[in-house]
Amino acid sequence: MTRPTAPRTLVTGPWLLGGPTGTPPPPCDPDATLPAAVLFDRDGTLVTDVPYNGDPEKVALMPTAREAVAAVRAAGIPTGVVTNQSGVARGLLTHRQVMAVRRRVEELLGPFAVWAVCPHGPADGCGCRKPAPGLVLAACRRLGVPAHRTVVIGDIGTDMDAARAAGARGVLVPTSLTRPEEIAAADATAYDLLGAVRLLLPPALRRSVARTREEAR
Ligand SMILES: [Mg+2]
Ligand SMILES: [Zn+2]
């Protein structure tokens, strides 16, 4: 008699790093005019998309990433990263390499309040791999913020679909790899990350971000 074989990959949910466990952040925005959190995609959004990158030396920031993340934090909004890393499931990336890239991103951009990483492949049927909502929802839970007041900024339709499925708001920052139909389907688009962040801020804060951009030139 043969036993059923165990599945090759045990799907146990995303890797969740950082963040206050179960402790909501202090209420910095009683009028709820600001997002409760901004979650960034990693590859092609915060840093250039190097397929299955496990090398911290290959981490390079996308245009205005530094200013955009700084502007979100200056507004008192917690930041997070939501990233599919199917290279893990494919055997092309180790946990250690994903953590090394994370450290390098944080050296360049400062610490994010939460990282939610999907290490699964498309065939694993997990609930976290974008366009599923699991990464966004897990990050929101970790931060103690409601998904409907959270914004996801990403470079492809998959990021926007994950945001929508989670009940969050999506802002697309297209690259040369973003397909026209993904741009057409997005609820909001911006030319660069700083432009995306400006969409989220009230006018007074927007003006201070505009000055930052001039200084950055
Ligand atoms: Mg991306
Ligand atoms: Zn997953």
UniProtKB/TrEMBL annotation:
<dbReference type="Pfam" id="PF13242">
    <property type="entry name" value="Hydrolase_like"/>
</dbReference>
<keyword id="KW-0378">Hydrolase</keyword>
<keyword id="KW-0479">Metal-binding</keyword>
<protein>
    <recommendedName>
        <fullName>D,D-heptose 1,7-bisphosphate phosphatase</fullName>
    </recommendedName>
</protein>
<dbReference type="InterPro" id="IPR023214">
    <property type="entry name" value="HAD_sf"/>
</dbReference>
<feature type="compositionally biased region" description="Low complexity">
    <location>
        <begin position="9"/>
        <end position="18"/>
    </location>
</feature>
<dbReference type="InterPro" id="IPR006439">
    <property type="entry name" value="HAD-SF_hydro_IA"/>
</dbReference>
<keyword id="KW-0963">Cytoplasm</keyword>
<dbReference type="InterPro" id="IPR006543">
    <property type="entry name" value="Histidinol-phos"/>
</dbReference>
<comment type="similarity">
    <text>Belongs to the GmhB family.</text>
</comment>
<keyword id="KW-0119">Carbohydrate metabolism</keyword>
<dbReference type="InterPro" id="IPR036412">
    <property type="entry name" value="HAD-like_sf"/>
</dbReference>
<dbReference type="InterPro" id="IPR006549">
    <property type="entry name" value="HAD-SF_hydro_IIIA"/>
</dbReference>
<dbReference type="InterPro" id="IPR004446">
    <property type="entry name" value="Heptose_bisP_phosphatase"/>
</dbReference>
<feature type="region of interest" description="Disordered">
    <location>
        <begin position="1"/>
        <end position="24"/>
    </location>
</feature>
